[in-house]
Structure formats: structure tokens, C-alpha cells
Give the backbone structure.
Amino acid sequence: MSKYIQDCIRNNSRSIIGGLTKPQQKSLNEIIRGLFNTGTPILRHLAQDKNKSAKKQAEKYSYHLGNIGIKNNVDAFALNKAKKSIEQTTIIAYDLTDISKENSRKMEKISTVFDGSKRKPTEGFTIHGVGINNILVKLEIHDSQRKTLNQTRLKIINEISKRLDNQGIWVFDRGNDDKQFFKDLRQNLKVDFIARLKENRLVVVEETGVIIQVKDLQEGKYKIFLMNKSNARADLKEKYTLVISDHLKNKAPIRLLSNLDFEQYSIKELVTMYLQRWGIENGFKRIKTKFELEKIRLLSYEKCVNLIALIQLAVVLSTITFLTIQQETNFLITGVLLTYKRFLKTKHLTFNNDSFISFLRDALRPLIHRKWHPTNQISLFSRRQLEKLGSF
């Protein structure tokens, strides 16, 4: 059982680190295994070789993280996995999260972010995330010195849409309520989308021609136009679908804007599709609780990018393994599922991806570092050839 999980992680990791040098591959394999074993990005805690000090191993990891670039490989790997199940109506969720580092002002390219948990500005990094079918296909740290949030957001959507042949429906939270952004999505990127609006968004209802804020509209579905850049007149070039729904009692109604066909989807269907966006929020929660993303300590921006990419890879590997054990009927895979279910009963946990990561942490043991002791006799063969030949 443990061997199957180890092989799954190792075999999927090969496509990411296959082009690196042997020392780099060895270090990244140790970091990936350490992330599963310890659930923390602190390099000293990832050390697994008892014959060497944790400090020396952490220095080795740090050195190699600064000399590689694996972010694009991880993104491509995750997107290829998600692409296998993509359909025209598959939800593609985009959102932002943050890493709060208020006491780490020496970190490269650190900027002011809004800490959502404490509801106040602080020092840290903004992270762009995209999720498809519970697979975290993008986890990109924002470089505020090179591009704005809007520019990076459009770049990410453009790259992923091209790879998916414009399939899927993009879903955005109300933090992305922007007229120009909606125009870019529809005219330039040519993607389908559903976006939540703020209550003060001005719209023009086609049926009445009234200019009104969406908070003053009754529950229902409307054909509307947005106002132009200066809010002086309606932009009649593009027509949108607006949905107002009291989907939860004693809560403010949800207000959704979409470029999907007005007649094709009902109010309930549009709200249901939007609510699937919560999958990306669960992904952010997973990387912060199961892998303690905010404890990252690297001062170098490039090292942070590579370590965050490895955390994304760990989340993706756990997700695809979790999905595999539910779908396959192979005897070995079924054994993993049964062992996982016994683990749930012992720990009183729920059957989900988060508890499966806890199960992996319990099932995967640290790497065993074996020392090779050369004999007194000089050999004509290399160490690797001798290992392949084995003992006589």
C-alpha cells in the first residue's frame, strides 16, 4: 500500500524534475516527500537524512531552489491532468489569496496586501489561483514590481483558455467586478464567464431602459447593458444576463453577471455554477492548513516561487491520487482505499481530500538514506553498475 503511494508520487514527479541534474532531482524529491511528511515549507523541518545536520540539508535545498525554474512545469502538469475531464460547461474558478509576512520585510518583492483573516493591510504576497475540478492548476505569486493585478489576471486567463481551446466557464468573485475586465473577457479573450457583482454596480435594464443599481432590483433574471467608462451612458454594444437570487434566507441576495445565453440557463443553474467557485477557496485553505504556506521563510523571490510550485505539486498529487482510488478497481488501489477508510474511523475524520492528505502523512515514511561502503578491492565498474548487478 505504502509502496503504491510512493510510486505514484515519484512517477508523477518525474515529468516535473526529469530535465534537472541528479543532485537537483534528489533534493526536490526530498523536499516533496518532506512536504508530505511534515506539512511545512520550513526547509530545516524537511530534512530527513539522520546522518547530516538539518542545517546542512536546508542549505542544500535552498541552493538548488535558487538554481532551477519548475513553476511552468508544475502548471503544465496540473493543467494536463485537469484537461482530461474538461467540458464546455466545466467551471474554472479564479480567485486571489494572500501570504501574510508582516515581520519579514527583507523578503524580495514583498508588498502591501490585505490580510483577509485579520481584515487589515499588512506586508506579504498576493497569490493568483485557478482551480478546475478540484485540481489546483495555477498557484502564482504576484510580482507587483513588474505587472498590476489586472495584467497578471488577464495573462493567466489567456494562457489557460488557449490551452483548453476556450472550453469551460470562468467564475469570479465580486472582487473582480470591473467593466473593462468584463469587456476584455468577452471581446478579446472570448470566454464564457459568470461574475458576482457589487451592490452598487450601475446597469441599464433592456426592457425598461432604466439606469439602476443592482441592489435596487428585485429577484429575477434580466437582460442588461453596462454603463460606459465614465458612467455617462449605456454601452449598447454588449448585452449581458443579470441574475438576482435570494438563495439563502436572512442573507443578502446574490447578484451575478454573465455573457451566457439568456434562455439557455435558469436562475438556479447559474447560481449553482457560480457556487462551484468554492472549490478554489477550499484549495487555498488546504495549502495554508495542510502545508502551512504562510510559514515560508525564504528571502529570495525565485526560491519562494519554486517552493510554492512544489507545494502546488504536492496538493495536485494528493488530489489525483485521491480521485484515482475512488475510480479504479485494481486490487492494490482498492487496498489503499480500504486502509484509508480504516484510518478515517480511527481518527474520526470525514472522507475528503483534506483527510486524505492526513492519511498520506501517516502512511508515507521518511526517505531512507543508505550509505554505500566501498570495498578495499578496486573495481572496474562504476557504483551505479555495481548497484544494478547486485550481490553475487
